Amino acid sequence: MVKEELLGILRTRFGDNLIVDEEVVRVYSRDMSGVQGAAGGVIRVTSTSQVKEAVDFARDHGVPLVARGAGTSLDGESVPFDGALVLDFSPMKRVLDFDVDNHLVTVEPGVVNRELNNYLGQKGFFLPPNPGSWEMSTIGGNTSTNAAGPRSYKYGSFRRWVKGLEVVLGTGEVTRLGHYTTKSSSGLDLVSLLVGSEGTLGLFTKVVLRVESLPESRVGVIVPVSGVRQATKAVVELSRRPWLGISALEFVDDKCISALNAVYGETLPEAPAALFLEVEGSRRGFESRLEELLNTLSGFELVGDPLYEENVDGMWDIRGRIAFALGKLYGENRYRDDVAVPVSSFPELVSGVSRILEEKGLEYAVFGHAGDGNLHLEFDRTKLSAAELDSLLRQIFGLTLSLRGTLSGEHGIGWLKLPYVDLEHTGEAINLMRSIKRVFDPKNILNPRKAY
């Protein structure tokens, strides 16, 4: 815990925005990963100057800081340890500027992704990366993990859409980074370095995002398939046809379908697997592209007719509830995370991970952003010791890396995957990351013991 004399200083500086109530602090000491940490207090920051003041205090007194938006991280990125102070950015939720002509929106980090898209939609625009947690997750959190979602199949992850940042470094310096032009060859791309750094290099206080005009036409399609292998092979085939205008290409297995129907009362067709697709583009030729899409899918043993969803956001809300539905069935004692491979290796990844989990006799579900090779897996770890879980994860990560994949497609490394970073990155690469950390945060006060 933070020493009482230091809490006195914090009360003077932050007043009622400082929270030390034990019950509240305990809530802030964990996130959706289920990892339980130990915060020394919470500061609800409301401005860049308050964030700077908190960093200056932490630097001067050797107190670690952990940034938090909505706490939706799944690898413990926002979990505090060793009495760290949690900076709650949720009060900083203003849209500061919208440059319609240049398709740029400037927001504070506490803005919720879904709410920003609602705002943009009224003006004919949208922010393409839509994480499964978009109803809750914040732009600051999305930026710090380089988050992605179903539409990342076409539009890429957050890094592609962040044009500028205002950031408070571990030194206490407030700096602005980025370019507002379509292209730039001036200097190192520090924005791309900070996106995905999980709050270890600096704390975002403003984010400038590039946004896209809404397409003329957009429809969702849910396709029941006779088997997991057929569904994953269909993903590879569809990925070879960019002219179809597919903007999202998702895979779910039968456990996901059953969980959604049981927990949320959905009426999805019970099938061994299903694909959730989104098709968009200009009105011209839209129907013919849909027809070609269905003709392509007909070669992969469908179960019944595809379902069309005009309410595409509603379809993504259903897809986004999978993790919560599985949580109701498996309980809190479950492991859930993501890995990613080149899309051509996605069928092999799914079959390999399924085989590993079945050999252990575990209840599990697999789903994910199949179009970009990103697999999500959840399983009940009740029967596994810590050593058995470690061995199992090393098998899964070993398979992933053998397929030229990565330990995380979008969730990040955080705390849970930290022991496995050296499976993917060389010692030299990890040392370079730590050297960069020392430049941005010489006192190691920003989210220590995370990412690398």
Automatic annotation (TrEMBL):
Keyword Flavoprotein: yes
UniProt cofactor(s): FAD
Gene3D superfamilies (alphabetical): 3.30.465.10, 3.30.70.2740, Vanillyl-alcohol Oxidase, Chain A, domain 4
Entry superkingdom: Archaea
Domain FAD-binding PCMH-type residue range list: 35-214
PROSITE patterns recorded: FAD_PCMH (PS51387)
Gene Ontology molecular function, alphabetical: FAD binding; oxidoreductase activity
Record SUPFAM superfamilies: FAD-binding/transporter-associated domain-like, FAD-linked oxidases, C-terminal domain
Keywords assigned: FAD, Flavoprotein, Oxidoreductase
Protein's name according to its UniProt entry: FAD-binding PCMH-type domain-containing protein
